[in-house]
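User: I want to check something. If I give you two sequences, will you return the structure for each one separately, not as a complex?

Assistant: Yes, each is folded on its own. Here is the first sequence with its structure:
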Amino acid sequence: MQTKDRLRREYNSYNDLSREFRMYDEQSMDSLLDDRLRIHMNPNGSDELSLQRDDFYASAYPQSPQLLLRQHNFKLKVYYSNVGNCVQCNKRIRFAVASLRCRDCPLRCHTDCCSQLTVNCIPQPLVSTKRGHLSDFVPRAAPLVPALIVHCVTEIEGRGLEQEGLYRVSSTREKVKRLRHKLLRGKATPHLGDKDTHTLCCCVKEFLRSLERPLIPMYHRRDFVLATQQTDPLAAEEPLYLAMVDLPQSHRDTLAFLMLHWQRIAQSPAVKMSINNIAVIFAPTLFDDVDLNLSNIVLWQQVLRVLLLQSPGFWAQFLEVEPLLPACSLDDEEWKRENYHSPSWQSVKTYFRSMKSVSLQ
């Protein structure tokens, strides 16, 4: 059954939304928000745009990646083969010792490390062969954000918001390639606690660049450009909402997730990455570099600046968490044995054999 939040996405007009769901109504911003809730264009006295962090949005809308996604569905299991290391402590899971395995994602950890986990549960994608489209890497239930982006963003925000130069300082190509291969392979959730934050940032950028279609596809580019022509970020909210609804769900959820992440990056004074810096770095990546020229780069940077100035609540509305179907309590092999050799299946085979013998007589 579709949830209430999902039904809100399907409205044909932005005006159909309830007043509680809409961030702003016909009233002006000054009448709705006091001085401590306003978006300041120049809070630090610099020429660059930035977004002020406020307690109102932090309490009203989910700000942390952990709050946007689902919890793990653990099963106690004893392994009699080598299954690798614990995703939390990075120590080997010992032979014939009980450990925890998530039924929905490839995470394995020690029973003692369960309470300390900082890794989100990202269900496995349904497709078996990946062609390079974003939909090939997203989980089977919303929010449709690839596990690579979620795990890297969670680790970056966990210990990197006080580090200068996120997404600006580069890492070695070999480290990025090796980490990207581990995260995309999907057989096990790798331990990221010992990875450099700059390597994690480069892994996110490299993944977005390698997509077959950019995060904002070419045939949706005009909608975003027209929606962000307004000088006031609040005036762009209605056309921007309609442009977001028209996006494929995997692109919409991933874009909203990254916008919240980049807003938190811009809000951290220690990182020294303003909205202008983020727009310069990611504009060619989000819009593709097929027709890369100076006029397009300036236009895309302006669009991305307006997107980053939208309220966190605007982006959080697209990150609804769909419940998964109840996971089977049996392992895959046990499930196959239970289904293929159950008494009901044997009775069906016996029935058809009896009917065949009757027809031959």
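And separately, the second sequence with its own structure:
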Amino acid sequence: MAFNQREFYDTQLVTSALKTNKYSHLKNCSSSVSKFILLGFPYSWGIQILLFSIFSGTYILTLIGNLCIICAVRWDPQLQTPMYILLASFSFLEIWFITSTVPNMLANFLSETKIISFSGCFLQFYFFFSLGTTETFFLSVMAFDRYLAICRPLHYPTVMTVQRCIRMGTCCWVCGFLYFPLPIYLISQLPFCCLNKIDHFLCDPGPLIQLSCVPAPATEIICAIYNSVLIFSTLIFITSSYILVIRAVLRVPSAEGRHKTFSTCSSHLAVVSLFYGSLMVVYVIPTAGSAAGKQKYVTLFYSVLTPLFNPLIYSLRNNEMKKALRKLFRTVRFSQRPGRNL
């Protein structure tokens, strides 16, 4: 009994000493972390150049596609309706969403250090998540717009006016940028170890939490709750809206009428499926212990590829948008003719 008691006290002393050394080392490490290294895609130099070319092209095509939608809505009087104003606003949002990550990722492809400052990392974190949150709110407003137009057509002109549409879009931006400051602040206050390499192409909460010198279950749970509440609340709202829309479409007597009515919604449903499907894989499950590689590639899909697909989906599935884009291209070609400038 005496031996066990003495062994217990010795163990306590060793544990106390280890804790003291650990937190002494932690203090030194946390005070020295002023930058992070974004590993991105650590392939050979030739593959890095290939990836740089691919994502540069993707970025340029995304900008062109979304700008075309914005210009078509701006210059075609027939598209000056709430649905297309929301679509143009969504395209404007997509431009900023992809710009929050891709330029820095392209610079890292050509960089040997791949360094991002502490403040720059969390600034990117804030803008990327705020813009992503704004996108979920925009998708919800667009679903509500389609619900009113199809299920409440008599009330639609009075409820969804252009002025109200603009106010709702503004509210999406404001709420999107006010939603995530608390989780970002909590992660920024974690004590980071001397190993400051992030196995990602952007500053994401999962890899950042894994760099912490001490476990942070509370911060991780808070982040998971914030993500789950945002994703599931907006997804349930969008799904409920489209269930009612589909029910209303099925009651349309003619097959041509059903096809025309549903064609305005199918493109939006495709965008929602792409965005939310990849979003839930990464951010609903708590981040600790998740495979960094899987998170990296799924994040790449919804942050880089969906902004590229969205203009294609909306333009190919919408006849009015295709007509407006053809008119826009004809106008641009006509204005560029040599004889036009004489």
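Because they were folded independently, the notes below concern the second chain alone. Residues 65 and 312 are 7 Å apart (CA to CA). Confidence is low (pLDDT under 50) at residues 1-28.
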